[in-house]
C-alpha cells in the first residue's frame, strides 16, 4: 500500500470566553481537535487588540496528559534554541515548525503526528503593551487517535486482504484488451470509536510513473457526504453511464469502467479517507491510505503472417496465413477487422466488423471481373485467418501485409478505432509469360475529299504463348477539341462503342482481317479533320474466369484532312460574279430612276 498525508486547511475561529474591548486577546480553534496518528495538522493562532509593532512574537507549548502541569517548549518565532530536547530533532528535520501567516498570526505545523503528541497546546505571545491587560495565551486540546482505517483493493474473483498504514503489497496485475470492462473493488473499514465519515476514491497514474499524489489522477470518488464526483474525460464517461461507483454493503466499494481504451492503461489506486468533525463544525481529514489496485498494458494486439516469401507462376494459387493475438471478443460494444493489403495500402480483401468479406476495388470491377479471392477464419485455431487467390496474376506481385484493427462502439453506434497492428511484409515473386504487342495505323486512301468515307485501319501483332484477346480504340486530336477524343472502340468481347460527330454523320467499325480492324467515317466533313491513332490493350483470361491486363500500346498518328471538291472551287467565283452583276445592275437602275424622276418634277 502507498500512503498519503493529508493536512488541515486554514481555519480561524475565536476561542471561548469574553473579549474585552481594548484588551489583548489570543485566538485558537476550540477543542478538542481529533486527528489520526500519522497524519498532519496545522493549528492556527492569532492575536488582536494589542499595542506595539505589528510583527508579534509567538511561542508554542504542549502539556502532555502524563504531566498536565508541565509545559514543554516546542517552537518559537523569537528564539531558534527555544525547543526542548524532545522536540529539537523534529524541529531541525522540519517535522515540527511554525509558519507566519502575517505579522500577528502564525500556524503550528506537525507533518506526522505521533501518539505522544496528544495534549493541551498553548500559544503564547510575549507582551508589547504599555500595561498588562487581557490574555496573552490561548489553549486548545488535540487528541491523537490510533490508525483504525483499513483498506484493500481487489479485482473480481480475488479475495481482499485488509491492510493498514505501513503494510506494503505488490499491485494486482490485470491484463485486458480494448473495449473490455474494468471492474475494481475496494474494502474500507474504520475501527475508530469516534463518529467519523469515510470518503473513498479511485485514481490512476501512468504505467511507468512513480506512485504519488503528483502523478495520481482521480477517476471517480464518493465524498464524505455520499456525493459521487468525477471530472475531465471521466466525467463524460460517467454521464454516458460508462463509469460507475457503487457501495456494496457496509465496507465494499466497486468501480466499473466500461469499454476501456489504451489511454486507460496504468496503475489504479483506491484511496480511503476518514473525516472527523471539529467542535466548530469544520470537517477535518483523518487517515488517507492508497492501495495499489491494478495495472494493465495499453494494447496486447499482435499480428504475424507466413510464409515470408512466395515464388509463383502466372495462374498458380496464392495463399497466406495470418495469426492475431489479443483480439477482443465480438460483442455489441467491441469489434475488429482483419484485412490484407498490398503495396502502399491497396486493399485486397477484408473481413469487416460484421464478419462479411469485402474485396478491394481493384479486385472486383467491370474490367477484371470478380476474382476468386477468399478470406476466412480457420477453426478451431483462434485468431488464424487464411487469404487465398485462386489464379495469381502478374499484377499480384508485391509486398503483402495482414492488418488487424480493433474498434469500440460509441453510444451513437459509431465505431471508433482504438488499436491496430500489422504483420511484417510478405513478398510475392512471379515469373510471368511476356505478351509482346505491335500496332500500326494507316489510311486506306491517301487523299480524302469532302463527302468521302475516310477509313483508318489498325493492324495488330501479338507475340505470346497464352491465349490473348485484344481491345481496340480509335482516338482523334482535333483543333476544336482541347482533349483527345475517343471516336470508336471494340471491347475484348467484340462489342463496339461509337461516339457522335460534330457534323452528325455516321461512324462504323468492322474487322477486315484476323488482327486488322477498320474505322469508317462516312461523309467526312472539315470538322472531322485531325490526327488519329489507335490504342490496343491485351487481355489474358485466367482459370477463375478473371481477366488480366497484359499490356497496352498505341500507334503513330495519321492525318485525316478532307480536301474540297472541284465544284467547291467553281462555286466561289460563281457566287462572286453573280454578286458583282447584281450590284452593277442595281446601281444603274437606281441612277436611271433618279434622273427620270427629276425631269418629271421640272415639267
Amino acid at each position: 500500500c502507498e500512503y498519503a498525508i493529508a493536512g488541515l486547511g486554514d481555519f480561524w475561529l475565536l476561542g471561548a470566553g469574553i473579549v474585552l474591548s481594548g484588551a489583548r486577546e489570543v485566538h485558537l480553534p476550540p477543542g478538542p481537535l481529533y486527528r489520526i496518528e500519522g497524519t498532519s495538522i496545522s493549528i492556527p493562532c492569532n492575536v488582536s487588540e494589542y499595542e506595539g509593532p505589528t510583527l508579534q512574537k509567538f511561542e508554542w507549548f504542549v502539556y502532555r496528559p502524563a504531566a498536565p502541569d508541565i509545559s514543554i517548549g516546542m517552537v518559537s518565532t523569537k528564539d531558534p534554541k527555544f525547543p526542548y530536547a524532545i522536540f529539537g530533532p523534529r524541529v531541525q528535520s522540519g517535522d515540527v515548525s511554525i509558519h507566519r501567516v502575517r505579522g500577528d498570526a502564525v500556524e503550528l505545523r506537525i507533518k506526522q503526528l505521533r501518539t505522544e503528541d496528544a495534549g493541551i497546546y498553548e500559544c503564547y505571545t510575549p507582551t508589547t503593551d504599555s500595561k498588562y491587560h487581557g490574555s496573552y495565551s490561548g489553549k486548545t486540546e488535540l487528541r491523537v487517535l490510533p490508525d483504525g482505517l483499513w483498506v484493500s483493493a481487489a479485482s473480481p474473483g480475488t479475495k481482499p486482504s485488509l491492510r493498514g498504514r505501513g503494510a506494503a503489497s505488490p499491485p494486482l496485475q490485470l491484463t485486458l484488451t480494448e473495449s473490455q470492462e474494468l471492474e475494481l473493488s475496494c474494502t474500507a473499514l474504520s475501527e475508530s470509536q469516534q463518529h467519523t465519515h469515510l470518503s473513498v476514491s479511485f485514481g490512476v497514474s501512468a504505467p511507468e510513473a512513480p506512485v504519488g499524489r503528483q502523478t495520481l489522477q482521480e477517476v471517480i470518488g464518493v465524498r464524505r457526504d455520499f456525493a459521487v464526483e468525477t471530472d475531465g474525460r471521466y466525467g463524460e464517461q460517467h454521464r454516458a453511464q460508462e463509469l460507475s461507483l457503487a457501495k456494496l454493503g457496509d465496507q465494499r466499494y466497486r468501480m466499473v469502467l466500461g469499454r476501456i481504451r489504451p489511454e486507460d492503461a496504468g496503475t489504479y489506486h483506491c484511496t480511503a479517507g476518514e473525516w472527523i468533525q471539529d467542535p466548530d463544525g469544520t470537517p477535518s481529514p483523518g487517515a488517507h491510505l492508497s492501495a495499489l489496485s491494478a495495472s494493465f498494458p495499453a494494447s496486447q494486439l499482435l499480428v504475424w503472417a507466413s510464409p515470408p516469401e512466395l515464388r509463383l507462376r502466372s495462374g498458380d494459387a496464392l495463399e497466406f496465413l495470418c495469426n492475431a493475438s489479443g483480439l477482443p471478443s465480438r460483442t455489441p460494444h467491441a469489434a475488429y477487422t482483419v484485412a490484407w493489403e498490398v503495396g502502399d495500402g491497396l486493399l485486397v480483401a477484408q473481413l469487416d466488423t460484421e464478419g462479411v468479406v469485402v474485396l478491394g476495388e481493384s479486385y472486383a470491377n467491370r474490367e477484371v471481373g470478380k476474382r476468386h479471392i477468399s478470406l476466412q477464419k480457420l477453426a478451431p485455431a483462434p485468431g488464424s485467418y487464411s487469404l487465398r487467390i485462386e489464379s495469381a496474376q502478374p499484377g499480384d506481385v508485391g509486398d503483402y501485409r495482414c492488418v488487424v484493427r480493433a474498434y469500440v462502439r460509441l453510444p451513437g453506434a459509431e465505431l471508433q478505432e482504438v488499436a491496430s497492428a500489422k504483420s511484417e511484409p510478405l513478398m510475392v515473386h512471379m515469373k510471368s509469360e511476356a505478351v509482346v504487342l505491335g500496332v500500326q495505323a494507316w489510311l486506306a486512301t491517301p487523299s480524302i475529299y469532302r463527302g468521302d468515307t475516310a477509313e483508318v485501319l489498325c493492324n495488330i501483332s501479338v507475340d505470346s504463348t497464352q491465349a490473348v484477346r485484344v481491345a481496340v480504340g480509335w482516338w482523334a486530336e482535333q483543333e476544336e477539341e482541347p482533349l483527345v477524343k475517343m471516336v470508336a472502340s471494340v471491347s475484348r468481347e467484340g462489342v463496339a462503342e461509337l461516339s457522335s460527330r460534330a457534323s452528325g454523320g455516321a461512324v462504323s467499325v468492322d474487322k477486315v482481317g484476323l488482327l486488322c480492324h477498320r474505322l469508317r467515317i462516312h461523309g467526312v466533313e472539315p470538322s472531322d479533320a485531325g490526327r488519329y491513332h489507335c490504342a490496343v490493350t491485351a487481355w489474358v483470361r485466367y482459370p477463375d474466369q478473371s481477366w488480366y491486363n497484359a499490356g497496352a500500346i498505341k500507334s503513330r498518328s495519321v492525318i485525316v484532312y478532307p480536301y474540297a471538291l472541284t465544284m467547291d472551287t467553281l462555286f466561289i467565283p460563281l457566287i462572286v460574279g453573280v454578286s458583282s452583276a447584281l450590284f452593277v445592275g442595281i446601281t444603274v437602275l437606281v441612277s436611271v430612276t433618279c434622273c427620270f424622276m427629276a425631269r418629271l418634277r421640272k415639267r
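The CA atoms of residues 336 and 406 lie 4 Å apart. The two ends are 142 Å apart (CA to CA).
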